[in-house]
User: What shape does this take?
Amino acid sequence: MWGFYFHELMRSLPFFLKGLWMTVAVAGLSLIFGSIIGFFGGIMRAGHNKPARLIVGVWVDLIRGTPFLVQIFVIFFILPGIGIELEAFPAAVIALTNLTASFITEIVAGGILAVPSGQKEAATAAGLSGYQQLRYIVLPQAMRTIFPPLVGQYVLLIKDSSIVSAIGVVDITRVGWLTVQRIPEGLMVFGLVGLLYFAICYPLINLSGYLERRMTVVSTKI
Amino acid sequence: MISFKNVNKWYGDLLVLNKIDLEVAQGEVVVICGPSGSGKSTLIRCINRLEPIQKGALIVDGMNVHDRKTNMTQLRAEIGFIFQQFNLYPHMSALGNVTIAPIRVRNIPKGEAEKLGRKTLVRVGLGERIDSYPAQLSGGQQQRVAIARGLCMQPKIMLFDEPTSALDPEMINEVLDVMRDLAKGGMTMMVVTHEMGFAREVANRVVFMDEGTIIEVAPPNDFFTNPQTDRGKYFLSSILTH
Assistant: This one.
């Protein structure tokens, strides 16, 4: 029996690869948009403008303090109630971008604030503008602190993307749910699902570890 | 060149500068001394508005420092500032450190800025360390890079905030030598320091501060041999016996 189901599962492989592609698409788009928004958010959060700092802070707390499943339901089911109709795919990307951006905001703000204040003072005394200080002095140094947890956040993003299956996006997890109804070998089906996630995440986990070691070596050597 | 007119500054309720009146002429070297917490560092940090003042006027090179309309970039470009902790940019080589502001603030082409940077690093005795990163340099070398960084902007004024206090004793002189050269070259300088030998040798005047107030202003020989106030006498006896 097991052999038969395994054969069936192998025949479903193209379906799984389509799911994998969907996961990569949702996570990849969210990664790009979330990083861009997160960097701007982090710069504002660590900046001098008090209202901007406050608004970004409230947003970050709100997103970090609520379950992602609830956020995605709000976007997918409640927004249509006020006239904003969304397909599952854009709703998933928006929700995941929003989540990722809030975490990256905290990572970037932390990295910027970890740069010693003497660096900004020296740059100010030299006549560099606020933008130039950020661009040439603060961000290059902050990147060392930002990079390792940033890559770690990407791993979390890929795994959290499994929740978008709840609104009907056919990602790997959803493919697993659909397949298990046909092939009632849960362990085998979700074993494959897990393996596919692992195949994307594992290189990133290694990259994160590598960056962490390298950044530590660099900052002690230089 | 630098003119304090009845300047007051508070941190919250704490009065840190109290009715400061001081004129520094072009080419003059003024050493500021006094016990810690007396406001010496704050005084020179006001000159390029690293600190705001709340009362009075501060005119530097004809510009009112604390007027909103003053172009601070232009003013700061004319003032080199040397920190106790050097504050070199750790991700840039010595040459990168000294050329960033000339390139970005003065808009000097990169090649020209690097030529100027090399020349200035040679001038402070670091011709061999042009491509070194700050962490590869000793404290004395780092502070000399910091001085070169200030000089590359070809400033009219150089301010020094305890430039040798973070250095091991054997490195103090290499930094003071560079500062002596600058003074001889006619640079307008204000130096917060505890190096009384340097003050005696190089300064035109010594300003003695305590509790945010200027207590005495005198040529170094007069101040060191014959201070006019009890606080001055007490300060000198306490630093000379230690």
About this structure: Residues 6 and 51 of chain A are 58 Å apart (CA to CA). The first helix of chain A runs from residue 2 to 11.
